[in-house]
Amino acid sequence: MTETTRTTAWWQEPVVYQIYPRSFQDSNGDGIGDLPGITSRLPYLAKLGVDVIWLSPIYASPNDDNGYDISDYRAIMPEFGTMDDFDTLLAKAHELGIKIMMDLVVNHTSDEHDWFVQAKSSRDNPYRDYYIWKDPVGYTQEGQPIPPNNWVAAFSPSAWEWEPETQQFYLHLFSVKQPDLNWDNPTVRQEVYDLMRFWLDKGVDGFRMDVINLISKDPAYPDDPQVAAGGGTDSIFFAANGPRVHDYLAEMNREVLAHYPVITVGETPGVTTTDGLLYTGFDRGELQTLFQFEHMGVDANPNPALGKWNDQPFDLRDLKRILSKWQLDLAGKGWNANYWNNHDQPRAVSRFGNDSAEYRVISAKMLGTVLHGLPGTPYIYQGEELGMTNVFFEQLEDYNDLEIHDHYAKLVGSGAVDHDTMMRYISASGRDNARTPMQWSDQEQAGFTTGTPWLALNPRYPEINAEAALADPNSVFYHYQKLITLRHEHPIMVEGDYQLLDSAQVSAEEDAQVYAYLRTGRGHTAGQALLVVANFSDQQLERSFQEPAGSRSLLISNYPDDAGDTLRPYEAKIYLYQAS
Ligand code: TEU
Ligand code: CA
pLDDT at position 474, please? Predict the structure, then answer.
């Protein structure tokens, strides 16, 4: 098939695999994953069949937020290796036909970045205006400076930190060690474009852009109404999508992205589909795709004061409504990035499937089938292809993530939640679920390290590991491998239009157990259709669907046989229809 017969572009086709380098593979026994470790596992990723790797940050960082606080954008974190190690990784990946996307974290830097060290040294330092400084709006009776507004940072109580030396506050939407850059300063923007060119000229293939929709702030700095009403664990959503964000992204595109064959995805908390079209619209010249957060909020606490912290199951009807809205609202105009989990989210199988010994494998395959069947770019987070699960640690101290510690202090400290409840919430919703080391084998430390891992392993590694998965033709791994192959072999997987399906028994809107949708071919795949059916429950159910015209074949299933309208627990299948 020639490129011109396709109705989608090359960048819409790949499957992306996210690596969290700290937890992927240690090569030197210090307990920390590193670049040579990743290079040694490239054959594993080639076997899985992924097209692109997204590397979470590998730059110099004091690791307040594990690399999302960068102190030098052009240097490799010494714990991860050297620039030579990076060049080797890039070259070996390219030899295997795998592209590398870098994490671009430019809403903020580390407070140890030289720009910030300079900026805070005096009010007239040339770097001062690289960051956002504000005078106090007054002083308390005790003489404490009062910050410009009530914004709550993601990882500390206030988004404003007082800098006594120069007597001003600086803004940090995340931790105090992550000061926000001032994108309204054109020099800052040029600095960012420069460092992007540095990596692109090295040959990297794209960027995942961290919280890129936070870069423009409302100059009025209005109070966050949710905080004022006593709710919310941070002001991230409120600060998002500021007045000049689209100008800046269009400029970035003109100055940098348009000159390279790149893949881009923006991480964009707090976006509606209307915003989504502004960021990813094919005619907009901004980003190719985005990570929206709406479906990540599907199991948020009904009490808004508790934010995401919860341990109650989601409702499939909400999930279908959200995913369908994103599919339909962007259809033909923009492109989704689809994900069940990442380094900030709990494990997919524990959250949306069933991680019991009985149903873990089958439900992990079901989730993969649903995600890879959707239009958009599928993202796989390391270990998802093994069906890795959430973890429960006994002690708060066993968790590393600064968000867990900050939100514990906010919620238990204020009396909103008690200790035991919060520990349950952390095990269900905390970011460290994703960050326990990759489980390679049933050997000591799961083959991740010969030393002591920086974060404890999930105790289920003797049962759940890559070696066992590779030896078992019925593993989650081979199911994912097959899903990726299907995408490569059947253009309709990429191009087909999406439609949520009712069954004869119950409408899609009311069905809390089954998710079914149709993909309809267009252009050169006209005459083809895909039917994707997934049972999200442990019940056996009957569902029949109006089938498209043509001869039917079963492309993939997580059961060895097809029981027709009978759906067994967590059964998922994709049929291909071909009109003659
Ligand atoms: O996350 C952005 C973000 O919105 C986070 O608040 C995230 O949603 C939250 O952790 C989920 O509870 C990005 C990175 O992915 C994250 O790892 C960083 O900590 C954060 O930005 C700051 O760079
Ligand atoms: Ca190491």
Answer: 98
Q: Which residues are within 5 Å of ligand 2 (an ion), measured at CB?
A: 26, 28, 30, 32, 34
Known catalytic residue: 26? no
DSSP-derived secondary structure letter, 108? B
Residues 290 and 313 in one domain: yes
State whether 311 and 247 are in the same domain.
yes
Q: Is the pLDDT of residue 478 over 60?
A: yes
484 is a domain residue: no
CATH code at position 43:
3.20.20.80
Do 159 and 243 share a domain, yes or no? no
Residue 98's nearest CA partner among 20, 36, 42, 22 is 42
Whole-number pLDDT of residue 63 = 98
- Enter the tokens of residue 437: 């080391």
Same domain, 500 and 459: no
For residue 5, what pLDDT is reported? 67
Q: Are residues 123 and 260 in the same domain?
A: no
Q: Report pLDDT digits (tens) over 537-567.
A: 999 999 999 999 999 999 999 999 999 999 9
Mean pLDDT of the chain: 97
Residue 513: domain span: 490-578
Ligand 1 binding pocket (C-beta < 6 A) is 65, 68, 105, 154, 174, 210-211, 236, 267, 269, 308, 343-344, 403, 431
pLDDT category, 580, cuts 50, 70, 90? confident
Which is the closest atom of ligand 1 to the Cα of 107? 23
Q: How far is CA 133 from CA 103, 168, 187, 342, in A?
A: 26, 6, 16, 33
* Nearest ligand, CA 23: 2
On whether the CB atoms of residues 54 and 19 are closer than 8 A, the answer is: yes
